[in-house]
Design brief:
22 helices; 449 residues; mainly alpha
Length: 449
């Protein structure tokens, strides 16, 4: 039984400076619904990192699986257990298609690894700069909403391009899986149906897991996937993984590569700040219905933690392709909704963020889980990217209202996806000045006398 929280107080923990450490079972209770769902989904989606590592870093599966364990430390232990962030931590998923497009311009292996190092260092320094200066909010305001929409459109287009190309290898399995996941997450009639049906609501809340299970059935039936399930325990090859990707073994990138990576890092930061705004908005809304707990939030602290997570991962185990971001959006939404339903269902917001992740530390050592996941890694990556592309598309569309702004956002998004972030930013700024500024001194029309 965890230490009891006084009504209206923050969740108990070990305070140190800006941060508060909390130990599961001591400062936070266990919660069975989150343990079951979170363990399965965290392990399944963690396999996406292994697939990305195999694709871009040229690391074999047996070695690449180690990154699933390594990322759990930097993804969950550091922000949630050690630093006390109230968010459900995750990757910078909306930026993943742009990162993949950037890495695709380099030869797989050492060149791509060093390119990812450059992106990580540039982004981490941006986090550190805004943490020290506190200028994060102002920077976000300086970037016009139309350019923000264009960057998000670029991520959407890059994701769709990647996944439509992948269909050649699984022309039956992938469309069926996409259809099932879209149905469970975005269908209007299904959303209405599950409101009054517990079974449908449960299925809808586990859309990603259902997608994997559908692939596990359809893939073998069509001959597009094959399983070889084995028993036993698997010890992740951490030393071999670190040796293959660490900057201290393969070398650091040159300055020209950092210059190439910086425009992409700026774009990624825009995604991150948007995630922070969303995360805090959801917690503020939840706090209106849960006066029994004070949830402490601090954007400066969040920037420091993001710097520590990304640079820490890079220095200890090489670059991390999805990059560490503030929230796993779907999980953060799910947990805040559970939290709003009352203390009897979720004692603290930390009861959700703690219990969602830790079971994966056990599952990734089980050979049946590892061998089941191996043929599904491409499907896991596909589901992640197709959902990211779909979500980015409707978010970008909702951000711009006028015909000129809509055309601008789509055109610049195409430039970003096709020619890269540097061209995208250059064209985006130039075209914004040509089309969308409200007034140019000395040129704007004067009223007729």
């Amino acid at each position: 039984m965890a230490i009891h929280r006084d009504n209206g107080a923050p969740q108990p923990g070990l305070k140190w400076g800006k941060f508060t450490s909390r130990i599961p079972g001591v400062h936070v209770d266990f919660s069975l619904p989150e343990i079951i769902q979170g363990g399965l989904l965290t392990t399944a989606t963690g396999g996406v990192v292994a697939a990305l590592t195999m694709k871009f870093f040229q690391v074999p599966f047996e070695v690449a699986w180690a990154v699933v364990l390594i990322q759990l430390f930097w993804l969950w232990v550091v922000p949630t257990v050690v630093c006390g962030e109230p968010y459900a931590p995750g990757w910078i998923t909306p930026a993943l298609p742009l990162v993949m497009a950037f890495l695709g311009k380099f030869e797989a292996g050492v060149p791509a690894i060093q390119a990812m190092m450059a992106v990580t260092v540039c982004l981490s320094l941006i986090f550190l700069f805004f943490a020290i200066t506190g200028l994060g909010s102002r920077f976000f305001q300086w970037v016009p909403v139309e350019l923000r929409a264009a960057i998000i459109f670029g991520g959407s287009i890059a994701a769709f391009n990647a996944e439509f190309g992948r269909m050649a290898k699984m022309p039956i399995t992938l469309p069926i899986v996409w259809g099932v996941v879209f149905l469970l997450m975005f269908s209007i009639w299904f959303t209405k149906a599950k409101q009054n049906n517990r079974a449908l609501n449960l299925v809808g809340s586990m859309a990603l897991l259902v997608g994997f299970l559908v692939a596990a059935v359809v893939g073998p039936l069509t001959g597009e996937l094959a399983f070889d399930i084995k028993m036993g325990f698997h010890i992740p090859q951490i030393a071999a993984y670190v040796k293959a990707v660490s900057p201290f073994t393969i070398g650091w990138p040159d300055m020209a590569l950092y210059a190439q990576a910086f425009p992409l890092a700026l774009m990624i930061y825009i995604f991150v700040f948007g995630d922070l705004v969303l995360a805090n908005t959801l917690l503020e809304q939840a706090g209106k219905e849960r006066s029994d707990e004070t949830i402490e939030r601090d954007n400066t602290k969040s920037h420091i933690i993001l710097f520590i997570r990304n640079m820490g991962h890079l220095l200890t185990a090489g670059p991390f392709i999805p990059l560490h971001g503030p929230i796993w959006t779907g999980v953060h939404v799910f947990l805040t909704e559970r939290y709003k339903s009352g203390r009897q269902n979720l004692d603290s917001i930390f009861s959700g963020t703690f219990n969602w992740y830790w079971p994966a530390f056990i599952l990734i050592f089980l050979v049946p889980v590892v061998t089941f996941m191996k043929p599904l890694l491409a499907v896991a990556l596909s589901i992640t990217l197709i959902l990211t592309g779909f979500a980015c598309a409707y978010i970008a569309i909702s951000m711009v209202k006028t015909p000129a702004a809509q055309g601008y956002a789509f055109f610049v998004g195409m430039v970003i996806a096709k020619f890269g972030p540097a061209w995208g930013l250059g064209v985006g700024v130039g075209l914004y000045l040509l089309l969308l500024v409200q007034r140019i001194p000395g040129i704007s029309a004067q009223p007729q006398s």
